[in-house]
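Homework-ish question, so no full write-ups if that breaks the rules, but can someone show me the predicted structure for this set?
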Amino acid sequence: MSKLVEVEDLKLHFKLGRRLCVKAVDGISFYVKKGETFGIVGESGCGKTTMGKTILRLLEPTGGKIFYDGEDITNVNMQKYRKKMQIVFQDPYASLNPRMTIANIVGEPIDIHNLAATPQDRKDKINEILQHVGLNSEQANRFPHEFSGGQRQRIGIARMLAISPEFVVCDEPVSALDVSIQAQIINLLHQFQEEFGLTYLFIAHDLSIVRYMSNRIGVMYLGKLVEVAESDELVFHGVHPYTKSLISAIPIPDPKAKNCGEKVILSGDFPSLLNLPSGCRLRTRCPCARELCEDSEPILQEISPGHLVACHNCQ
Amino acid sequence: MANDLLEIKNLRLSFFVPSGEVKAINNVSVSLKRGDVLGLVGESGSGKSVLSHAVMGFVSPPGKILGGSIDFNGLRINEMTEKEKRIIRGTEISMIFQDPMTSLNPVYPIGTQICEVLMLKNKMNRKTAWYKAEQLIKSVGIIDPQRRLTQYPHEFSGGMRQRIMIAIALACEPRLVIADEPTTALDVTTQAQILELMLEMKEKKGMAIIITTHNLGIVANMCDRIAVMYGGTIVEYGTVMDIFYESRHEYTKGLINSIPKLTAKKEEKLVPIEGTPLNMLVPPLGCPFAPRCKLCMAICLKKRPPYTQIASVHYSACWLNQKEEFERDAINV
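A: Not a homework solution, just the prediction itself:
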């Protein structure tokens, strides 16, 4: 499979004054193959959403390169690519315009890209998409507030599907939803991937959901990728202390089950992004930090085919 | 039972809002033994937070208790005056709130906030209270307590603030701690720390805990008993093993099947619960879960299912467990 999206040393630094600078995304490189789902996990504040938006150039990167289908899109006019790259936002309550009807929300991308020849054509297209995501055409003239969270997320997905994109950034699409609704949306995303051959960048903080969705997973910590591997490899043979701690922190919904692998509980809290620790960023919380970790920052290296880790103790 | 610490019987609680009556708690009975951990599981709007607030005596208009009783250690909470309730809050029952960001007062240092409880309830003077506060926040894992006590809530991270909330809740060594979604606002790694801390404190002090959550993983690891709530009622109640392995209610089963498990085989498909959560303004006549249930029968839409005892402490409210009675009713209908 060829690489659909590739980022090289992507950086996004928010300047907050002459000296203060938040390094939200700080040198990330990875690629997403055509038709696969690449998952990104990390705690809140680690820069995963910022990275997703930067790849779509909704935020301008301060460094690095973004490639789409082999072409460098870091500095080009994005209009041509907007039709191919879409996003599903995290909060279905905030991402739909409350003054627009569902038909207009889903129809807007169709209008922008001139995909409907006649008004009737447009209407048919909208109805077809709404039916696809499990809503009916009678609901097309209603407003977002008349829908529940799960239904709103379906509308968000319908809007993304309206222009049949190739690459979709799913930015925590289920974290705002009730447990019983999450599975509906996940299955829907799965179904559309198979039907339309979509490629996903799936961002979430819940490793069990990411693992369920993804072929490969990247673990992010403080603006950097610390481990990248096939999803099963990562869950069962993850080696980075942060990955292990994420895995053992997930409460398993089964009273008899034991956590897989050794239990690693990180001490302390997320450091401030304004004042990053020297060397390895995890060292202030890591149970196996050494002197070396303080002096030099580990780089992402391949330890087995397709499995990359950034840790002095694992290389 | 005589040795139950808390007994709620046939509790009914409604909110009277302009558009009608919302039956937030509809005939709920549940009990808790000393030193046990009870998990209240349910989606948003299922009534789990309202129930836990009612135990603390936090029911304010438009909410009103319409019937039933809440007995705590021989005291009837729902018939107490506000003054009497104040006496038991903190010393007998205390609460850990969901959002550590908003439940601490931003304009006082945290030392003052911890001391306030101790001085008010335990009649300590400022000096001994401050000393006790130091020990308390040390016991919840905050290092350098002397300096930390003089700091304000905004100087702490979310996990730290939740630790402080726990310290405040445990200051007077209550018999019952109600934790209302204690980790929902926190990250997974911090969540693991807080849950570990709560279990550790329970071992040390031997208090009972009611924990409300929508995360089945948390109840599997923490609780002795689980009550699954849907639409303002408890649909199933039992031990952790009963609920996870012997569930006799379609909602509980659906909930367990709809969450992805980290170590499960990838090919296993998630089975979602179809439909949308209940509109509490127009509750269905029969079983609250009937409109979303795959095995819904005619009677489910008409009549509320009674509880069936399945094992010694395992109860389920589903007509499928009442086959015999159902068949008799079906003839009458």
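Now go work out the reasoning yourself. Hint: Chain B touches chain A through 42 residues (CB under 8 Å).
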